[in-house]
Design brief:
Elements: E1 4-5, H1 8-19, H2 23-37, E2 45-52, E3 58-65, E4 71-75, E5 81-87, E6 93-95, E7 116-117, E8 123-124, E9 128-131, E10 134-137, E11 146-147, E12 160-165, E13 170-178, E14 189-197, E15 202-211, E16 215-216, E17 220-221, E18 239-242, E19 244-248, E20 261-262, E21 274-275, H3 285-290, E22 294-299, E23 307-314, E24 319-325, E25 329-333, E26 357-361, E27 376-377, E28 382-393
Antiparallel strand pairs: 1-28, 2-3, 3-4, 4-5, 5-6, 7-17, 8-11, 9-10, 12-13, 13-14, 14-15, 15-28, 16-27, 18-21, 18-23, 19-20, 19-22, 22-25, 23-24, 24-28, 25-26
The protein binds beta-D-glucopyranose.
Beta-D-glucopyranose binds at residues 111-112, 122, 254, 294, 331, 333, 337, 357, 359.
Protein name: Aldose 1-epimerase
Pathway: Carbohydrate metabolism; hexose metabolism
Family: Belongs to the aldose epimerase family.
Length: 394
């Protein structure tokens, strides 16, 4: 479960790859496919216009498909997944993620629907941290705290995109350069996120970043899932499993206290599949602080660095979502702050707990908590984080 790999070789490789915008790679793969059999190579990725930023910059939508019929729409604004279809037990594909049909709806007060989060997933206490004796003050956008990268985090940036069709799926490489000092963070950060839709109904996400000054990084993906395929339902009937024997209790501002608390015998025990609604209203101080579940679970070590983290199962439709990661934590958020104020894609509104998030990440507030695994990234190192979301049915 290591995120930061100090490999100069890899850094050089990454920098070269970054500069070329993956074009060489892409050309190579394409020509390889072309020589194999031009006729049989299906186009698995389509680009269309999605809208315009207030300054006129175009935002594109890429539709990734695979041979089974899964479709994922990703827009260049925030790298947001706006639509994602998954089969039920009868093979019917339906949209299972919260979002909007038009760009303007994403400009309002939207709780990070489907977005890439950076530079830092979740909260940094008092919007402040120190590195090598220097104190950095970050944008505060959550009471006194910094949340999900600040006022204009990576979720609100327009990313560059490089699409690629594969034999049975598609790849979209998104890149963004965050300037030194953006939202208060030190160092110019070059970020690359690779979305790969496989022929196995799996979205593999690889995050990479390099910096020119010591900084902190903690990237994640903020999709809200509703496996029922009907956004007027809540997610309380979803059965969730979390591969975690402990979680991080929080203070009233949802900052981890530093304690790793065993889940056993508490509403936080998801080591066996459990309906989200079973104990979400329990008389428990931590539940009350989160308004439900809004905590980081400490993932158990798995045999491989990249292992099972979580699953969600919707009994009625038979949809199963599994999450694998090499991160040490997962934020399980049950959409407690949704309140029906946002219109849904299908005509209704997004009500309380109409979506659940499984955000793989390092622990919140790590830059201020020495006992937590470090989120520090130095020049010459490559930040690397790997997560996959896999759909099936049972
Ligand atoms: C946080 C919540 C927050 C939500 C939307 C989650 O990752 O844990 O506290 O309300 O994101 O911003």
């Amino acid at each position: 479960m290591k995120t930061i790999k100090a490999s100069l070789l890899f850094f050089v490789f990454f920098a070269a790859l970054f500069n070329s915008g993956c074009k060489e790679n892409k050309k190579e793969n394409q020509s390889e496919q072309e020589t194999v059999n031009t006729e049989s190579v299906k186009n698995h990725i389509e680009k269309s216009a999605f809208g315009e930023m207030p300054d006129g910059q175009q935002v594109d939508k890429y539709t990734l498909t695979n041979d089974n019929g899964m479709e994922i729409d990703v827009i260049t604004y925030g790298g947001i997944i706006t639509r994602w279809t998954a089969p039920d037990k009868d093979g019917n594909y339906e949209d299972v993620v919260l979002g909007f049909n038009d760009l303007d709806s994403y400009f309002g007060d939207v709780p990070y629907f489907g977005a890439l989060i950076g530079r830092y997933g979740n909260r940094i206490a008092n919007g402040q941290f120190s590195l090598d004796g220097e104190t950095y003050t970050l944008a505060k956008n959550n009471g006194p705290n910094h949340l999900h990268g600040g006022i204009t985090g990576f979720d609100k940036k327009v990313w560059k995109a490089e699409p690629e069709s594969t034999g049975d799926g598609a790849i979209l490489v998104l890149t963004y350069t965050s300037a030194d000092g953006e939202e208060g963070y030190p160092g110019k950060l070059d970020v690359k996120v690779t979305y790969t839709l496989t022929g196995d109904n799996e979205l593999d996400i690889q995050y990479e970043a390099v910096t020119d000054k010591p900084t902190v990084v903690n990237l994640t993906q903020h999709t809200y899932f509703n496996l029922s395929g009907d956004f007027s339902n809540d997610i309380l009937d979803h059965e969730v499993t979390l591969n975690a024997s402990a979680y991080l209790p929080v203070d009233a501002g949802l900052i981890p206290t530093g304690e790793l608390r065993p889940v056993e015998g508490t509403p936080f025990d998801f080591t066996q599949p459990k309906a989200v609604g079973k104990e979400i209203e329990a008389d428990n101080q931590q539940i009350q602080r989160g308004g439900g579940y809004d905590h980081c679970w400490v993932l158990n070590e798995t045999e491989d660095d990249f292992g099972f983290a979580a699953s969600a199962y919707h009994p009625e439709t038979g949809r199963v979502l599994e999450v694998y990661t090499d991160e040490p934590g997962i934020q399980f958020y049950t959409g407690n702050f949704l309140n029906g104020a946002l219109a849904s894609k299908t005509g209704g509104t997004y009500g309380k707990r109409s979506g659940l998030c499984l955000e793989t990440q390092h622990y919140p507030d790590s830059p201020n908590q020495e006992a937590f695994p470090t989120t520090r990234l130095n020049p010459g190192e490559t930040y690397s984080s790997h997560t996959s979301f896999k759909f099936s049915t049972k």
